[in-house]
Structures are given as C-alpha cells and as structure tokens.
Amino acid sequence: MSFTPKQRINHAMNLQKPDRVPLMCQFSIGSMMQQLLPDPAEFWYDQEKFANGLITLCEKFKFDGILVSLHGHSERWKETLISKEEVSPGFLKLTFDDRIELHSINDLPLITFNNKRIPKDIDEIDVETDIPSVIDYIPVSANLHFKLDSLNLFGIFDYIYQKTGEKYSIHGEITSPFDYFLDLLGYENGLLALMMAPEKSKIILDKFTKGIKEIAVQMCEKQIDAIKLSSPF
After folding, report:
1. What is the pLDDT of residues 6-25, one digit of tens each?
2. Which one, 71, 138, 186, 200, has least CB within 10 Å?
3. Phi and psi for 61 in degrees, rounded to 5?
4. Dihedrals φ, ψ of 92, to 5°?
5. Rounded to an integer, what distance in angstroms lies between the CA atom of residue 73 and that of residue 98?
6. What is the distance between the alpha carbons of residues 135 and 218, in angstroms, rounded to a whole number?
7. Beta-sheet pairing, 144-147 with 99-104
8. Is 43 in contact with 33 (CB distance < 8 Å)?
9. What pLDDT is attached to residue 137?
10. In the structure, what pLDDT confidence band is assigned to residue 118 with cuts at 50, 70 and 90?
11. In a 3-state reduction of DSSP, which class is residue 104?
12. pTM for this one?
C-alpha cells in the first residue's frame, strides 16, 4: 500500500506502521535563505514568500511534512519603514522609526533599537502589566521579536493548505513559557531568579503559559496535524 506524505506521518504519530519511515526537517532561516536566495527582509516579513519557501524546500527534499516556524505575519509591516538600502552585497539595512535591522541571507536579522531594552530584575516585574495576557510576539532569539498580527494570526496555515491540500502533514509551532521568561528577564537575571525568587518565577511562567496555551488552542482549529513546542533552552 502506498501512502501520501500526510498519511505516512499521521500513521507514525498514531503508532501505526507506515509504508516507510517518514521524513521532515526544520531548516534554520539562514539555511533556507541560502538555498532560496530571496530578498532576506521580504522573506522574514512576507507571509507568502516565507510559505512558498517552506513548500519549495519540502518538495525539493521530498519531505512528508511542513513545519511552520513563523506565523502571524503582518501585511502592514512597511508602514513604519523609513528606508531600505543595500549596504553590501547580500546585506540589507532597514530603518524603522524605533529600530535598525540588518538582514542577510546568512542568518536571522540583527536588530538595534533606538532605546535599548534593558532586562528588568524580577523584583521590578509587575505581573499584571509587564506580562501580556494576550501573547503578541515570538521571542525568536536574543533581542529579536517576531510581532504577531492579531488580524492574521494563522493566515499562513490557510495559505499553505490552499497550496498543498491534503498532500503534506502541516505542523505549527509555539514557543515555551521558559523562553518568554528568559527573554523578559535576560538570561543571567532569569536563571538567578529561578533560584532566588522561585515563587514569583512560577507566577510569571504560569501567566505566559496561559497566553501561549490560548494560541495553541486557536491553532488547533486550523488544518494542522501537530504542534511543535519549541523550547531551545
């Protein structure tokens, strides 16, 4: 019996025997761009360009599934863009009203804010005001947030499903509460806080957990087969 890629992964996830071992992979952003050679800023911000890149690489490597690592792309991301210039071959400098971004095909964008965000000590954290009830960003890396557009939170899943239908297993991704915790406090402050202020640390983690859970529950309503809980730390 021959399986479709989607059937192959779903059988394996349900502890049933597929026709062969299923295969899929999450490339780094840099690896994706080096293979696709897109405009790096457009690839980071534009939903269709990012989704088409995921589909292209899935087909190229004959994967059985597509992991969507970024969602919530905004069509309005250029509204605060002041300028865009090529500072050297393959490197783009984007100037916004509050930050400067350096994009390249090698890696994630590097962000410099006009007003540097200084991590707070846990004693300074107001859980009600400093921890959002509705999560509106992904803490991709140190000092790098991917802003979530509440009006298009899961549009990329609809787009990929429209393009691929039932052929591939589509997986979403959310980021762990601990990553949000360390992003808020900074790595050193966050790790110290776990030892010095465990009760308040737990309260902060619990609030992040509730917001992330809400995103996951809503994501489950889309045409996806699994959600990856991303927890690099």
Report:
1. 999 999 999 999 999 999 99
2. 200
3. -100, 5
4. -115, 135
5. 19
6. 12
7. unpaired
8. yes
9. 96
10. confident
11. strand
12. 0.93
Q: Is 20 exposed, middle or buried (0-12, 13-18, 19+ CB in 10 A)?
A: exposed
Structure tokens at 121: 């000590």
What's the length of the chain?
233
Check if the beta carbon of residue 15 is closer than 8 Å to that of residue 160: no
3-state SS assignment for residue 129: helix
Tokens of 148: 């979530």
Helix axes 187-196, 198-219, angle to 10 degrees: 120
Provide the b/e sequence for 167-184 (b: ≥16 CB within 10 Å): bbbbbbbbbbbbbbbbbb
Give the span between the Cα atoms of 26 and 21, in whole angstroms.
Answer: 17
Question: Please, which residues have CB within 8 angstroms of residue 218's CB and are 6 or more apart in sequence?
Answer: 153, 154
Written as six digits, the tokens of 204 are 């902060």
Task: Read off φ and ψ for residue 136, nearest 5 degrees.
Answer: -125, 25
Q: Which amino acid is at 120?
A: K
